[in-house]
Amino acid sequence: MKNRANMVLKNDILQIPAIDHHCHNLLQPKWVKNAAYTTTFTEGNDPEILNHHAHDTLFFRRSLRDIGELLNCEPTEESIHEMRQTLGIEKLSQKWFNYANLESIF
Q1: Angle CA 41–47–53, to nearest 5
Q2: pTM given for the model
Q3: Which of 2, 39, 72, 99 is spaced 20 to 30 Å from 12 by Cα?
């Protein structure tokens, strides 16, 4: 019974539009073009971490799966990158904001 109550509460809360007051990954296209995709999944900036370890984290792997599902593409960096290019920054951002039920960002 407690688990069902938690699910109902979670679903109710998800219906309330949110305001993101600390938005991170709205990056200018020129920056995204020259940066490794893995840089958005870690706060580290050591090239060794970005090039050889970030791909292996559970967070990165789970994120690829979730992003692929949202973008309706294969959960690979290549497929996600292609879909991001196809959608463009405006449509991609709108898709994410709708998914997260964001009303505003700051």
Answers
A1: 55
A2: 0.74
A3: 72
